[in-house]
Amino acid sequence: MPMDVPAVALRPPDQVMRLDRMGAMFQTRISFMRSLIRRMSAEQWAFERHRFDIDDAGFGVAVYLVHTPDRTYSLIAFAHDLAPEQRTDRVIAEAWDATFNLFDGVATDADIERLRSETPRQEAGRFSDTELVLARANKSLRLFDHVVGRLADGHQPEIEMLIDVGYLMRTTAVYGNGKFGCADRFKISDRPEMRTAFQAEMLTVYLVRLFTVDLVEHIARCQGGTGAATLSPPVRRFLGIGNATGLGMAPFLVSHPVLTHNWVVARETALARVRAIDPTPRSSVSALRRLTGLAAVYAEEWVVEDLLQTERIAELRNDIGRLRDFISTDACFDRPAAIDALYLWGERHLSLEGQELLVSILLEPFGDQIDDLSQSMQADVTACWDPAMAVGQLRDQLLVSFAWVLAIDFDGPESTKRFWYYSDEKLEPRIGDRTTEAGAEHEMPIAVARDVARLHAALADVDAATTVAEFVMRSPEHRNAIRRVQTASKYPYAEIRDNLIDADCRPIDMLRFKLALFGAGKYDPKSSLWTRINLFQGAPFPEELSLDGVDDWLFPTRPVVAA
Amino acid sequence: MTVLSLSELGFAVRWAACGAGVPIGLAEELAEAAKAIGLAGLDPARVVSAALGGLAAPRRWGDLTIDRTGEIPVLRAGLGGCLAAVEAGPVAADTLLLSQDDNSPEIQVKAVDHPLLASACLAAGGLANRTIRCQWGGDAGVVEVTVADGRIVETRVDSDTVLYAAGPSGLKIESRPITSTEADGVARIGIKGELNVPDQSWHELLRLASVSWVPSNAASRLTGAGAGLTDTD
Fold this sequence. Notes:
Mean pLDDT of chain A: 96
Radius of gyration of chain B: 19 Å
Largest sheet of chain B: 7 strands, mixed
Oligomer: heterodimer
Mean pLDDT of chain B: 89
Strand order of the largest sheet of chain A: 1-2-3-4-5-6-7-11-10
Helix content of chain A: 40-55%
Shape of chain A: globular
Order of helices and strands of chain B: EHHHEEHEHEEEHEHEHH
């Protein structure tokens, strides 16, 4: 989709596409969840609990319908009895507390019976192109049981428990795009509500959140009878859906370079447009101050066990304090190009987490300037290929887009230490040590930097006038690297500009980048390969979609419950 | 029959190819070619499995040459013998792309092991706005496959045996700009998106793909994914 050129330049790929910055990003108002909620509200989607055959213990089947202007989708939810020792978030799990499908249309009883035998088996099941998404979730036992118990006794849950966990269930996989027989993306990609990437998956998660709240209230009612309480609206809204995210998400970014570019260029264009706004509207000044105050509370409530992330959050809290001081005076905004100056101040004075949080804050008040960009966050092409290009031009392109790889010593063992692979155990993505573990010959094609460095070396003695077709006919092992160079030349934000097989690479940075684009929050790293997050925390429920402030949930904070 | 999505067919083909030692750049194109075969109602798993199973190991990649001494360029194995469709198909597509200035470029592939697969690579090879006709066969029958805008749009075949035949076949490829009538026809076909693949073919393709899965062990199970084995928070 063509975009206008803002007066302020986009941040360059060498700045944006580095793992340390990607791993510091936050939700923005053009993240996928945010744009989905806006569409639900604008188009007045109707939600219906169509079936709720759940027993007193909370097991059974439920169906939710979503009526959009042009069609209906169904969430089919199966709730299961799961032994605690079976509860793992890993891909290698065999059973879950709940399993789901997003169904295209209104699921019939026959559809539900078919899926009753397939969906609980997840990867071992077979699905058809009426199923758009396959997902599963596990309970947060602490919070789920606590909330049920408190509601059954007629009380609201303890707020500190809510802040500590933040969700009743967490999804451990949300599969779309043709997995296990489900519908390919092309089937739905021309639908307005599904045009932006991952909208079917986000809708599924939103409906799962709805189901978890209905489920706890139902069990509480069965236990407490007429004395049972329901969740107060602020408490309910504070409950998101957790997600456990591992390595599977990272290779997606490498295998979808144009899509990655489009996501980033939308985000960076949004920032550039906002930085170009001058003078700063007074209403925006107050909004920026209010959001910074909310960010301070959000950061105080963001507590994790991971030591590195704890240090980064502590630094972020200090950053927010500095930011609050800086923007508290009118002088900050009574100057030419004040928003741009504020952003540049952040680059000089804040940590990477602080800088990226500032980006999210800056974008928030300017929806009328940037919300259209969310529609460009998809891709119709996957990569470029031009066999007629001369090797000399290819070499020039490589030196522009991949100059950074030439600084890496790939002869050193540390720079090639890791390899990414699919385990034969349920195809769980894993990372191994090339120097001590077997299987590196089957590594995923993640090592773009190494492969482009090899291409550069191979091109050294090739005549500049030789065509790519002639070169690659003799050296087909470089075909993929050439495609990546040509693609990056046209789509400069397509590549992560770091060595993904280096010993010091932190895959979690890729996860956070993608999750921030989804709209996730409360990143809770469990290792450098794995994180938990919260999705839709603070987002409006269906009956709240027509209220004022429907889009105001960038920083969900402690719910205030009337005594 | 197994009903597949395009996505899972592409995934299986890509990894089966990698398991057979095919460079990833060619494996990606093979996956797209397989989708084109499947969308034409043919059996992509059968032809891909046969093509990958027939690759010599170890194989010398890049041993191709284009003879331009005659009226029509001829693609042949550098040391004689039979070309692998996995490699010859993308090279033929690149050669046609290079000849876009020529209104009706042609190319002959001297001897290729799986001409259907090589033809499908032309569908996947980025040759937009072209109609490409591929012919092969002999005494047992003749096949004519027409490719346009990334799709196999027509298959004329005397027998399935010839269609899926393995073994050295000469492949004649003719290309010309697509007509507006043909383009409209391609657009009308759309993408049905349902691939019915015989179970036996599909299982064989999965077996080949499984070569690329690294065997799990106790250590990799514990540390390879960066998360624990139970989650009871």
